[in-house]
Amino acid sequence: MNSDDLAFFSLVVDAGSIAGAATLAGCDASTLSRRMSSLEKSYGSRLFMRTGRGVSVSPEGEVLLGYARQMASLMDKAKASIHGLRQQGPSLIHIVAQPSIATLLFGKLYHALQARFPHSQLHFSEALADKILYDLRASKADLAIMYRPENPSSQVYEPLLHEPLYLISPPDFELRPDQLTSAAFGEVPLILKSSRHGLRVFVEDKCAQFGCRPNVVLQSDSSIAITLELIAERCGCAIMPLAAAKGMIAQGRVIAHSLQAWNFERCVALAVGRTEISSSDLWVLNGLIRNVVHQLIEDGAWQGTRPA
After folding, report:
1. Which helix (H) or strand (E) holds 158?
2. 92-307: CATH topology
3. DSSP assigned state of 185
4. Is the pLDDT of residue 82 over 80?
5. Which residues of 125-148 are buried (b: 16+ CB within 10 A; e: fewer)?
6. 3-state DSSP call for residue 168?
7. What residues form DSSP beta bridges with 147?
8. Closest CA to 257 of 270, 275, 243, 239
9. For the segment 213-257, what is each residue's pLDDT rounded down to a tens digit?
C-alpha cells in the first residue's frame, strides 16, 4: 500500500465505480481493480460493497477514506511547500565573468535574474581566467561566463556564442594589407598582457601557426578602458572584441581591422562550479543566461558575434 493506492481508492469512491475511476485516472480498469483488491487484502477488510451499478464504500472503507483524504491534503501541502521553495530560488547566486564579458552582460543579466529570483542575493564579480577557474573549483563562485580555453582541462564548458577578434589601432596607423593576412603580422606593434595566459596565449599560438611571433611593444595588465586609451595615444595596437571598443570607435579615436584571414575567434562559454544550487535552479539559470546572450546578439549590442 502506498499514497497512490489511497489516491486511487478515493477516486473510486468519488466516481462510484472502478470503470469510472479508471477513465478519470487514464488507466486500465482491470489494473485499477487489481490494485483495489490488493488494498483490501492489505487491510484484511472489504472496503467496497459491489452493486449492479458499481461500488459503494463499506463501513471499514469509510474509516479508511477519512485517512486517505488527510493523506491527500498533506501531499498537496508538501508539493505546495516544495514549489514555493523552488520559486524562491537559491539564497545566493554568485556569477563571475571576464572583464569584457561582464561589461556587456551584467546589466541585462541582473534584471533577468532579479525578475526570476527576487528573493535571491545576487553577487557579480569579474576576474581573469585563472582566478575564475580557481573560484569555481573552490566553491567561491556558482557559475562563470568566460572565454573557453584553447586546451580545456577537466572543466566542462557550454558554448554560448562565437566572437571574432579585431586588431584595434590608432586612426592614423599605417597598416599594410599583408600585415593582416600573413607572417608580416609580426611587424605590428602590440599591447598585450604580461602573463602568459588567456588572450596572450591565444595570440601567440595564432602567430606561431603563421610562422611569426607577436611584436609586443608594451605589456599592460590594465583594464580594457586603459588599453583603449593607450591605443588612442599611439602606444601600439591591441587585439580585442569589437564590442569592447565600440564606444571609442564611434568617437573616431580608434579603428578596427578584421582578422578574418587568421580566424581570430574565441568561444564565450558557461561553466558551472562546485555549487550548492540545485540542478533545477541551475537549469533555469542556464536558460536565463542564454536568453540574455541571444538578446544582446539580436539587438546588436554584442557586435560581430553569432550564437553557439
Report:
1. strand 157-169
2. D-Maltodextrin-Binding Protein; domain 2 (3.40.190)
3. G
4. no
5. bbbbbeebbebbeeeebbbbbbbb
6. strand
7. 268
8. 239
9. 999 999 998 888 899 999 999 999 999 988 889 899 999 999 999
Per the CB < 8 A criterion, the answer to whether 253 and 232 are in contact is: yes
- Whether the domain at 3-87 and the domain at 92-307 fall into the same CATH topology: no
Query: How far apart are alpha carbons 308 and 306 in whole angstroms?
Result: 7
CATH 3.10.180.10 describes domain 3-87: no
pLDDT reading at 179 higher than 60: yes
Q: 132 with 148: CB under 8 angstroms?
A: no
What tens digit of pLDDT does each residue of 269-298 get?
999 999 999 888 999 999 999 999 999 999
DSSP H helices, the chain, are 3-15, 18-25, 29-43, 59-88, 99-116, 129-137, 199-209, 224-232, 242-251, 279-299
- Closest by Cα among 82, 111, 267, 245 to 169: 245
Q: Where are the domains of the chain?
A: 3-87, 92-307
Average per-residue pLDDT in the chain? 88
Q: First-to-last CA distance in the chain?
A: 50
Q: Residue 225: what residue type?
A: A
pTM of the model: 0.65
- DSSP 8-state code for residue 217: E
Pairing type for strands 189-192 and 215-219 reads parallel
Give the separation between CA 172 and CA 168, rounded to whole angstroms. Answer: 12
- Alpha-carbon dihedral of residues 55, 58, 63, 69, nearest 10 degrees? 10
